[in-house]
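Comment thread on ticket #2218

A.B. wrote:
> Attaching the input chain for the structure job we discussed in standup.
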Amino acid sequence: MRSYDETLDWLYSLEKSKGIELKLERVASAMRLLGDPQLKLRCFHVAGTNGKGSCVAFLASVLGCAGHRVGTYTSPHLIDLTERLQVDGVPIARDAFVALVDEIRRDVIDAGVELTFFEVVTAAAFLYFFREEVDVAVIEVGLGGRLDATNLVHPLAAVVTSIGLDHGAFLGDTEALVAAEKGGILKPGTPAIIGSVGKSAGEVLDEIIAARGAVPYRSGKEYRVVGTGSRMSFEGLGEVLEDLEIGLRGAYQFSNAGAATAALLAAADAIPWSVADLRLGLSQATWPGRLEVVSDSPRVVLDGAHNVSAMRALVAELPELVGGGDLHVLFAAMDDKDWRGMIEALSPQCTTVVTTEVIPERAVSAEALQRVFSTHCRTVAEPDPELAYELITAKASGNDIVLVCGSLFLAGKIREILLRRKVLLS
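C.D. wrote:
> Ran it. Output below, let me know if you need it in another format.
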């Protein structure tokens, strides 16, 4: 059997050679060769520009509190690829992952079906959850939805958490076009949970629901969510649920928790749970790298905001987060993102900024980021993330906040550094 590092090298070689190819034919052929395990899973399927990872976390937490064995498939990972495939919150063992990938190489790729990086990992996830006999799997879409490799499941409910602009080269440059892609996960006769979306996106999703005969449960229509502080109320699907505590920080999490609650209610006949399970699960949900406080001296917050809509949602949280202190930002971004738009949204709040780089071959250079930030506030460029972290934390004192944002890869890198130093709070 190959080593874990050899397996990663091979997978990343696929990423470099094949890139992203949104097609279902290849992965459908692969799954047929593997016995179509995805069709034997009870699952929830979650898409969205932002919030889908948090929605997965809420769903998995509630279902776990209800006593179910829960598989979760998410992407990207923060530190180690095995984080993407978890059962009951525990990442797959490296040896088990290698064995699954070896099986896919032997039975699928050697049989002539070429797969991308994401398709191989998705196939491994389906096989893993089937063989682990999970009661339910919660599957996060990788990119888009209609042609995403995960879109071979027959879910108990399909969720679209939000619609915004990201991955324009693949999904389109309007919210209506993005909605058409993400709405591709909605299935005939299946509950379609639609979170907080704009007018044009909502109209497209309504058209898809009507054309496919899906069963709509839309935020603001079939269900409503109101939240303040860390608590929310939910009304819809025959229930009125008051004073639900939400374990994830940020007002935008009310929409994600509401979508998860609607999905659970819509599928309650197939996968039972109680209101007590819901209350406990929502309150205990965790999702690393999303408004996550990882250090108290100074106070350091990691957030994976990596597109303009996510950055605006993050900025809305800053007054409460920062209080009377100064905001010091460690920032990196990938070149395929609207990083100028993110800087425009964030920079008026910043006292100082250190710009850096992760995955240099895909990143905007620290110097390019510095030039844009420096028109708004004091900014230093330091390409090395660990040195950059030292620079930004040295600037904070008293009630100041250090915010790490702009890229999930940066959040993961800093989290890894703090784990290595054994100072990570969470």
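A.B. wrote:
> Thanks. Noting for the ticket: The chain has 15 helices and 17 strands.
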